[in-house]
């Protein structure tokens, strides 16, 4: 039986279009406006007592004057204040500034770390920059939400940073958008050293930064660290530098050497005094995102006083071996919280002797129980799409995995994904995915009464009408059946409780 790797795409995003003066959306990990696209990529634990937050900003209109990220009142971002931003020389970083600053400062209505664009740099016309900074654990926990404010330079007063226009402020729910973590769970403990997964960040450019934490338990200082990937790639790198560059962390310094043919990065110690007796350091490497999704497995070797300690670490299973793939070629597995429950969808490109998928759920990521079953296609060489809605999932974070069962009873487990379901404030309609990038659109409804579902284009023309029975809580539509072009649409739901409307972007 041919085996394949299981790929996952876990999607959490909310999209909207609005003018700056309209109500500020809260909680979406991606928020879109006429001039801006804000994305919060989550927070990752790094060395010491720090959390690293990462954002990206796309500017579609005039030039960016500054972007500011809220800090707790009276606090500052942890040193170094600016871990990284996409065009390092292009910004001045002001740490812990607000509208109470002097007249020559750009105003922000809350305490923040600001990235102020220099006069010779223009972020506009759809360009994207990435911004990251550190917070202490205490400051991060003090911010359940974070305000982010971007402001454009006035076209008439370009270059005068004290006269700016085109402001947009958004609010991110840090807990909802941060990737779920289980501190201490993804660790390989050996007598001489421990090796741990410290988080991964999709950089949005086809690469992913993976952070690996290595603690040296020996009394001798670390002299070198080697990290090897399973697959050969020409894009293997170290965060923030070229081959042969100097890699600095909070306490230590290394010279990096990258051997693309051997899939190997070597961190040669330049200043590692004290990297011993249980001290840990974090190594950030860059790999292609598609490679990381296929092979999230790394071989690590630490040299301390001539003693070599080696292990493999799978950042998904947290074991020292690669994941055993499923006997079907799964190309996607997505989860999203809706009004009617948690909607899971997955797609296979081929199947062999596939009897069924059993959907299993867990609250802690360790103990699973079955919540549903979906019949497989048996033997197939064409794309098959599956869906399952877990209507019994309550508010909170849930972990899901697929148990793929063959006709002969043999089975394999997928890796685990996590979906957060917020407490529902009321019966509401959900439209997803949004923007719609494939042929399928789902509309989750409150149910309980007869309803009429309508889709209208931006000119007010009705392109689809459908009556819903009280028990119908989810409707699947296809763009091909609707026979509508790409663009902006409005989804209306009229039931006994009133009328709800959501925008839908078809791409």
From TrEMBL:
<keyword id="KW-0732">Signal</keyword>
<feature type="domain" description="Secretion system C-terminal sorting">
    <location>
        <begin position="431"/>
        <end position="506"/>
    </location>
</feature>
<dbReference type="InterPro" id="IPR013783">
    <property type="entry name" value="Ig-like_fold"/>
</dbReference>
<feature type="signal peptide">
    <location>
        <begin position="1"/>
        <end position="20"/>
    </location>
</feature>
<dbReference type="Pfam" id="PF18962">
    <property type="entry name" value="Por_Secre_tail"/>
</dbReference>
<dbReference type="InterPro" id="IPR026444">
    <property type="entry name" value="Secre_tail"/>
</dbReference>
<protein>
    <recommendedName>
        <fullName>Secretion system C-terminal sorting domain-containing protein</fullName>
    </recommendedName>
</protein>
């Amino acid at each position: 039986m041919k085996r394949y790797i299981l790929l996952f795409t876990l999607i959490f995003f909310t999209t909207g279009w609005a003018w700056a003066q309209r109500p500020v959306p809260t909680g979406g990990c991606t928020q879109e406006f006429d001039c801006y696209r804000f994305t919060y990529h989550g927070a990752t634990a790094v060395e010491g007592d720090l959390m690293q937050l990462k954002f990206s900003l796309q500017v579609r209109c005039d030039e960016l004057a500054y972007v500011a990220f809220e800090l707790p009142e009276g606090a500052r971002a942890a040193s170094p204040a600016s871990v990284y931003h996409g065009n390092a020389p292009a910004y001045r970083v002001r740490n812990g500034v607000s509208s109470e600053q002097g007249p020559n400062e750009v105003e922000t209505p809350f305490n923040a770390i600001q990235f102020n664009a220099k006069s010779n740099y223009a972020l506009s016309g759809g360009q994207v920059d990435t911004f990251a900074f550190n917070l202490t654990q205490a400051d991060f926990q003090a911010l359940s939400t974070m305000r982010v404010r971007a402001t454009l330079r006035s076209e008439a007063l370009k270059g005068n940073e004290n006269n700016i226009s085109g402001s947009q402020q958004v609010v991110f729910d840090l807990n909802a958008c941060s990737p779920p973590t289980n501190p201490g769970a993804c660790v390989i403990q050996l007598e001489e050293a421990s090796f741990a997964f410290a988080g991964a960040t999709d950089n949005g450019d086809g690469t992913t930064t993976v952070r690996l934490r290595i603690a040296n338990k020996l009394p001798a200082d670390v002299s070198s660290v080697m990290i090897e990937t399973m697959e050969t790639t020409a894009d293997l790198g170290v965060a923030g530098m070229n081959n042969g560059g100097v890699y600095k962390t909070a306490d230590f310094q290394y010279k990096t050497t990258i051997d693309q043919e051997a899939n190997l990065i070597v961190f040669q110690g330049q200043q590692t005094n004290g990297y011993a007796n249980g001290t840990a350091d974090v190594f950030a490497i860059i790999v292609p995102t598609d490679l990381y999704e296929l092979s999230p497995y790394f071989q690590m070797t630490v040299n301390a006083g001539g003693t070599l300690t080696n292990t493999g670490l799978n950042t998904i299973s947290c074991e020292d071996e690669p994941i055993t793939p499923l006997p079907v070629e799964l190309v996607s597995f997505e989860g999203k919280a809706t009004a009617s429950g948690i909607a899971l969808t997955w797609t296979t490109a081929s199947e062999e002797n596939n009897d069924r998928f059993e959907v299993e759920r867990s609250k802690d990521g360790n103990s699973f129980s079955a919540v549903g079953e979906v019949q497989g296609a048996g033997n197939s060489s064409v794309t098959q799409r599956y869906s399952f809605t877990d209507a019994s999932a309550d508010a909170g974070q849930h972990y899901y995995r697929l148990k793929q069962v063959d006709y002969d009873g043999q089975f394999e487990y997928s890796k685990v994904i996590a979906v957060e379901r917020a407490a529902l404030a009321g019966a509401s309609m959900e439209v997803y995915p949004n923007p719609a990038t494939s042929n399928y659109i789902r509309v989750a409804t409150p149910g309980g009464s007869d309803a009429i579902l309508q889709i209208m284009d931006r000119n007010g023309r009705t392109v689809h009408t459908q009556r819903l029975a009280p028990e119908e809580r989810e409707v699947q539509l296809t763009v091909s059946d609707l026979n509508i072009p790409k663009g902006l649409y409005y989804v209306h739901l009229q039931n006994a409780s009133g009328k709800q409307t959501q925008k839908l972007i078809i791409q």
